[in-house]
Amino acid sequence: MINQTRRSFLKSVVRGSAGLAILPSIVPARLFGADAPNKKIQVAQIGCGRMGRSDLGNVMTQPLARIVAVCDLDTKRVAAGKQMVEDYYRSQGETDVNVKTFHDYHDILASPEIDAVVITVPDHSHALLAIKAAIAGKHVYVQKPVTYSIAEAIGLRRAVEAKKIILQTGSQQRSEKPWKSFRAASEAVRNGRIGQLKTIKIGVGLDKPSGHAPAAMPVPPNFDYERWLGSAPEQPYMELRVHPQDDVEGRPGWITTEDFGLGMITNWGAHHVDIAQWAMAQELGGPLTVEAHAQFMRHDAWTVHTTYHVEMAYPKKVQLIMDNKFPNGIRFEGDEGWVFCTRSPEEFTDADSTKKLPPLLASDPKILSPLDGNAVRWMPSKNHHGNWLESILANQQPIAPIQQSARSLEACAAAWIGMKLKRKLTWDAATEMFVHDKAANKMRSRVARKPEYDFELVLKQAGIA
Ligand SMILES: NC(=O)c1ccc[n+]([C@@H]2O[C@H](COP(=O)([O-])OP(=O)(O)OC[C@H]3O[C@@H](n4cnc5c(N)ncnc54)[C@H](O)[C@@H]3O)[C@@H](O)[C@H]2O)c1
């Protein structure tokens, strides 16, 4: 009867928090296998760095979830994560609090009492961890960009679909919290409020070199560099290319090192291109052609692109342009008006030195007036992490499912491939391949450093075609 009680509790919380009739007729059985005394979805956080702490803060305050474990390859960071969660639960009046700590995420995946995992590790490790979590039957919240490579995004989609788990991508611009502007602008565009959409202009900020030459260092004793490197190419440890040792919330250097993340094109690109494809009804499609030019950092510990200009042609003659001179945000231009959306100015990071604009602007206030009953509306999602938890319970697709985030990654990664090859590419969204282009197609994937980090092998061993 405990399971029944837990189910009733969760149902009442969903009704209360979302106010929506999203309850399934069959609640996924695997959630209720464990006899959890707190009757909440049991969540483990993998990766307790800068964004991991933000994800922890978002999930632990959700009425549907309980953070029961934290995991990191850096002992300082896992200890700080545990402390953060325990402090929060104690501040809520609890006296008996013990959040488990893990070094190896496989131990979390093997724990039957854990229902779901939040994966907040560097981009190059998203796919392997999320695929293994799906195979273990865990529901997944994985940060954006959903994967590092195009092949990984397709592989993760295969795993999610085969295992029928609920995966939310960390594309929080799709939800009302933290920002409402992206939903409002993209819904207005999708419903023809600016007439025929012609051009989309996106700025994603600009990374600058570190000013330091690459220099090998001893690996700190508190850090497991071998596993952190995972599938990425072999190279000596450099703190500048990993994460700061003295600041758990400092901007990590891997994000500006191409072996681990492709730079702003996928970093913020995954946010803004995702919204652009949503607005133009291409969330399951993609560009027809890609032309990109960029400068890359040289003679520096960091290696990603700096200045960029990207042009992508989409169906219905829509042109998407990304340029480092554009303000951070998305401007949609149609034949009857325009709308611009961005985050609130205080949310920008150091990489966004461009002009700060109000979060939502339109050429005419009528463009943003309430939509009528027949309009295309986005799924309600007041809170991005809350939407994931509600979707697990309802056994339904969340607001940022893998089928759509894989397409956002494809467009951004295609732009990066264009920057590298310095020529126009033709993309076929149906086959998720470049057309008659061996060199570009080769860059859809990369060879894993060791077989144990090879996601294709993991899929094969799990019998996922
Ligand atoms: N949604 C957003 O707005 C947003 C904002 C910032 C970052 N992100 C994304 O969040 C992710 C993490 O970024 P970050 O800035 O927190 O990086 P970070 O380097 O600060 O933190 C990553 C943590 O993961 C740990 N880690 C790496 N591999 C691991 C493994 N195999 N097992 C356990 N722990 C492991 C590292 O030790 C580190 O502590 C990235 O994908 C990034 O793109 C998203």
Can you describe this structure?
- The structure is a single chain.
- With 465 residues, this protein is an alpha/beta fold.
- Helices cover 32% and strands 17% of the residues.
- It is built from 14 helices and 15 strands.
- A hairpin with an 8-residue loop joins strand 8 (289-296) and strand 9.
- The chain is globular and about 60 Å long.
- It starts with a helix and ends with a helix.
- The structure holds nicotinamide-adenine-dinucleotide.
- Nicotinamide-adenine-dinucleotide (NAD) is lined by residues 46-52, 71-74, 77, 105, 120-123, 125, 143-144, 170, 172, 227-228, 243, 252, 254, 267.
- Nicotinamide-adenine-dinucleotide (NAD) binds at residues 46-52, 71-74, 77, 105, 120-123, 125, 143-144, 170, 172, 227-228, 243, 252, 254, 267.
List the SSEs and their pairings:
Layout lengths: L1 H17 L22 E6 L3 H11 L4 E7 L3 H17 L8 E3 L2 H5 L6 E4 L6 H10 L3 E4 L7 H14 L3 E3 L11 H10 L6 E7 L21 H5 L34 H4 L1 H11 L9 E8 L8 E10 L3 E6 L5 E6 L2 E5 L18 E3 L21 H11 L7 H20 L3 E4 L4 E2 L3 H5 L12 H7 L4
Parallel strand pairs: 1-2, 1-4, 2-3, 4-5, 5-6, 7-10
Antiparallel strand pairs: 7-11, 8-9, 8-14, 9-10, 11-12, 12-13, 14-15
The structure holds nicotinamide-adenine-dinucleotide.
The site of nicotinamide-adenine-dinucleotide (NAD) has 28 residues, from helix 2 and helix 8.
- Separation of termini? 39 Å
Quick one: CATH class of the domain at 2-174? Alpha Beta
Shape type: globular
Alpha-carbon Rg, integer: 22 Å
- Main beta-sheet strand count, sense and barrel state: 9 strands, mixed
How many helix segments? 14
Q: Which fold does the CATH topology of the domain at 2-174 refer to?
A: Rossmann fold
In terms of DSSP E residues, the strand content is 15-25%
The hetero compounds bound to this protein are:
nicotinamide-adenine-dinucleotide
- State the assembly state of the protein chains: single chain
**Strand element count:** 15
